[in-house]
Each structure stands twice: as C-alpha cells, then as structure tokens.
Specification:
This protein has 195 residues and is α+β, with helices and mostly antiparallel strands. The protein has helices at residues 3-31, 35-40, 57-71, 149-153, and strands spanning 42-49, 54-55, 72-87, 90-103, 109-123, 126-140. It has a 6-stranded mixed β-sheet with strand order 2-1-6-5-4-3. It starts with a helix and ends in a 42-residue tail after the last helix.
Length: 195
C-alpha cells in the first residue's frame, strides 16, 4: 500500500470513528439528560423524525427529556449493528438500537428495538447528524425478574444513577473503593433438575 493510500485509509477510519462516537454520544446524552452533549451530535439545521416527534435538535432535546422524564425513572439507549457508507463529506448510516426503560407506571420495565437511519455531514471538519429517522421495529414488556429484590438492591452500592452530571459516569478520576473487593451476592440454590 502506498503512503497516499495509507493516508486515505486512516482518514476514512477517523471519519468512521467520529461518526460512531457521535451515535454513542447521542445515547449518553439522552439517558443522562445532558443537553449540551445531545445537541453536539446534530448540526443546528438538522431534522429529527422520531415518528411521534419531528423537529429541530433543540426542540427534540426539550421533547425527549420531557417525555422520558414523565414516563420513566431511567432509560438505557444501546446501539449494536452499525453500517456506514462514506461518500466524501456525507455518510449514510444505519444503526440498530435497543431501549430498556424503568417505567413510572404500568409495567415496571419495557423494551424496544429499531434502527437510527441517519445522514451525517462533515462541516468545518466536524461530523454530525443532518437528518435522522428513528425506525421502531419492536417493543414490549418482560415478565418479572427472577433475581430477588434484595440482590437487585446491591447494584445501588456502585453509585446512584442520575439523569444529570452527578451520574457516576462523569466522576473524574473514576475510583472503586478497595474495601468493596470481594463483596458479592450469594449464588442462588440450584434445584435437583438443574444439577
């Protein structure tokens, strides 16, 4: 490979990583109610079509925080499969997403899955979403968890999740107390059929 081709390959890898970072920042911004981070993933003139909301990034942030705040205690937006077609300073992506939500009423948990279909544009050396369609492929609610509530409560010792900058993910430097080493929940008893 010539040095020119290597340089082109490195630029393409940098572009792809910047786009994927943008998608990850979207998920974190929505889940943490981090308005600045969420707005950073869009160009100011972008349009987001979530089906139940269509509008500008600023209006979307207001709507998303209000919607999730009204209906859920917490959300986790997760992304999996990701394809990216680069075409100069434009990219067309499809990213599979899953949403897990702790609900304030009705079923304690709900899940959904779909795809973010995006047009990214690189402007002033910055990749961001210019247009988004959020496609919902499925949704539902699970049955009750087989994990006892007292065991689930132990997860809170890691730190209280928050929809703001007090969330543990913003702690710098991240510190895990050495006194917690060796703590674990008891393993459940196995039935004779499972042995």
């Amino acid at each position: 490979m010539t040095s020119w081709n290597l340089g082109q390959a490195v630029r393409e890898l940098q572009d792809r990583q910047a786009i994927l970072d943008c998608i990850h920042n979207y998920c974190r911004g929505v889940d943490r109610f981090d308005r600045e981070l969420l707005l950073s993933v869009y160009h100011r003139d972008a349009i987001d079509d979530h089906g139940i909301f269509v509008g500008t990034p600023s209006d979307f942030a207001d709507w998303a925080f209000s919607f999730h705040g009204a209906f859920q205690h917490a959300t986790q937006h997760m992304v999996t499969n990701h394809t990216c077609e680069l075409d100069g300073d434009t990219a067309h992506t499809e990213t599979y997403w899953m949403l897990a939500a702790s609900n304030k009423s009705g079923s304690a948990l709900s899940f959904g899955g779909g795809r973010y279909v995006d047009r990214f544009e690189k402007r002033n050396d910055h990749w961001a979403i210019a247009a988004r369609k959020c496609v919902v492929d499925w949704n539902g609610a699970p049955g009750d968890s087989p994990i006892p509530t007292e065991v689930l409560a132990l997860f809170g010792a890691v730190g209280q999740p928050a929809r703001d900058l007090s969330d543990p993910s913003y702690q710098r430097p991240l510190i895990v107390s050495r006194e917690r080493i060796g703590l674990h929940a008891p393993a459940p008893e196995r039935t004779a059929a499972e042995r």
